[in-house]
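Bug report (template v2)

What were you trying to do?
Predict the complex of my protein with DTB.

What happened?
Run completed; filing so the output is reviewed.

Input:
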Amino acid sequence: MQLRYDWTVAEAEALIARPFHELLAEAHDVHRRGFAEQTVEAAILLSIKTGACPEDCAYCPQSARYDTDVEPERLMPTADIVVAARNAQASGATRFCMGAAWRSPTDRQVGLVAEAVQAVGDLGMETCVTLGMLTPEQSDRLASAGLDFYNHNLDTSPEFYGEIITTRTYDDRLDTLANVRASGVKLCCGGIVGMGESRLDRAGLLVQLARLDPHPESVPINLLVQVPGTPLFGTAELDPLELVRTIAAARLMMPASVVRLSAGRSKMTDELQALCLHAGASSIFLGDRLLTTPNPGNDHDLELLERLDMQVATTGKQPVVREQVVADAAGATAVAIR
Ligand code: SAM
Ligand code: DTB
Ligand code: SF4
């Protein structure tokens, strides 16, 4: 049985709208067939170049256009990045994710990041970077440094996108994703919920992700972190159960991808996070900081995982997919052993 790449928005919306318990049961069933359900993948983020970004992403505290508390910082030296990566590894993370507040890096900047990627990879950690738009040559350069994942989010539906960003297009993002894929680097690609979008927009985002062939190996679902000074500060809070539904639908539509419960956990109750993990998320960011905003911190997270009888994965590899599971819009699933 094939994974599906032809999802429609109507199908995705119908999935999200299914009776809550039915949706969760189906999503959890698909999840536990494909992944070790008591294991969570742990990544740690580092902002290697902070703030002063020319883009106008309405959610982002690092845009130069908004008056936020973020202090701009130049690209960190590789040696400092490696120190942070060692600390991340010591605290249990198997993937190190480096973020830079660029619209698109110069070749020189890509060369410097490639050095850092190689050095972090040499520690035995999986590497991920997010640097903005890339040319094919730039993604090849990163691939040759051994980069495992490139994070580049679609953020929201094509229809809502223009409300959030005007300085680059949806197609620009799809082009970068294609360049990264062509270089043989795995994709980390997801979006943000809680920006005032509708359920139809959340369905539209999931369809865009699930129409990528192959599906992104890693799908971060971020809950908007509202930062004073950004245009989205003060947006009406999303019903937390919509986040759970979105994760469950992502799990059903991209059954072999690792879904990450990404930004926004600091404002979530433990019980909400437990529901998200039940619905199909199996990856989190550890540590007390994301890029520029707070994250729960390892003491809290390790205690929560213990309460859920879960552990942090100890290998840098993705949890082994034992079976491939496909779902149709009604949630009916079929399983094929690989
Ligand atoms: N500048 C690069 C880019 O935008 O492609 C890389 C860094 S950017 C901070 C990476 C991603 O972080 C964004 O695409 C967005 O999805 C997410 N993000 C940024 N600010 C956020 C916020 N306040 N809440 C949730 N997610 C956020
Ligand atoms: C992603 O999807 N979430 C991470 C990572 N990719 C780079 C970033 C979240 C950033 C949250 C806001 C901040 O801390 O600045
Ligand atoms: Fe810049 Fe990335 Fe923030 Fe957009 S999300 S303003 S591109 S750092």
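What did the reviewer find?
The CA atoms of residues 99 and 130 lie 5 Å apart. The domain at 9-337 is CATH 3.20.20.70 (TIM Barrel).
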